[in-house]
Write a structure and sequence with these properties.
CATH superfamily: Alpha/Beta hydrolase fold, catalytic domain
CATH topology: Rossmann fold
Strand content: 15-25%
Helix content: 40-55%
Strand order of the largest sheet: 2-1-3-4-5-6
Number of helices: 10
Structural class: alpha/beta
Largest sheet: 6 strands, parallel
Number of domains: 1
CATH architecture: 3-Layer(aba) Sandwich
Number of strands: 6
Order of helices and strands: EHEHEHEHHHHHEHEH
Shape: globular
């Protein structure tokens, strides 16, 4: 069985995936958690901030731990990172499970997400979330993480890395999961991505919103059991 690496989403941290790691370890899996550059107090990379840099973070972990091939769970942005690395280094990643990953990047869809990245409005309307981000990313400034994330989304809207041509060249078995209450990732586009992938599957999870904290983790554990 391959080691499993869990990848967090935008503005997230590996600590959010610790409960899933515990469940997978109970099943006998060897599990690794990764904080992307600039997240959860990790220093910002001198190479920038975005999918390509985060894919390098993942590759660095594989090399550091001497992992020849790994299975991946990518939550939200983490799924995008996993598929990008699978395209660049097909021999390093085997099975990939994504959840709530937004694939339909365009100028308009990016603009919709960027509007949510206003630090002042977050502090005013959802101060508890502002405090959470501050705690999660300290000693980094959460507002800087927010700004860099918005810039990353702008770039993806202008020029998505994962295109139809790229998807068709990814040889890893990929299971794309999406909650029926997810308000970020597009259902039809997620299904289309699964169809483009040579070994792609799609499944809609019932009674499941976007936040990983509200997902029934047994769904994810089951997927890795099926992939054995």
């Amino acid at each position: 069985m391959n080691p499993i690496i869990l990848l967090h989403g935008a503005l997230g941290s590996s600590s959010q995936l610790q409960p899933l790691a515990n469940k997978l370890q109970e099943k006998g899996g060897k599990v690794f958690l990764l904080n992307f550059s600039g997240h959860s107090g990790r220093v910002f990379s001198k190479n920038g901030f975005g999918i390509e840099v985060f894919a390098d973070d993942l590759l660095e972990l594989l090399d550091k731990e001497k992992i020849n091939r790994a299975d991946i769970f990518g939550y939200s942005m983490g799924g995008y990172v996993a598929l990008w690395l699978a395209y660049l280094h097909p021999k390093r990643l085997d099975k990939i499970v994504t959840l709530g990953t937004k694939f339909d990047w365009s100028i308009s869809s990016a603009d919709k997400e960027i509007k949510k990245m206003n630090a002042e409005k977050i502090e005013e309307k959802v101060p508890a979330f502002a405090r959470l981000l501050q705690q999660r990313h300290t000693p980094n400034d959460w507002k800087e993480v927010l700004k860099k994330t918005a810039d990353m989304m702008f770039d993806l809207g202008q020029k998505p890395l994962l295109t139809e041509d790229v998807f068709k060249k990814i040889k890893s078995p990929v299971e794309i999961l999406l909650g029926d209450r997810d308000d970020m990732a597009d259902l039809d586009f997620s299904k289309q991505v699964a169809a483009w992938l040579p070994f792609g599957k799609f499944e809609l999870l019932q009674n499941t919103p976007h936040p990983i904290e509200k997902v029934q983790l047994n769904y994810i554990v089951q997927k890795f059991d099926e992939l054995k």
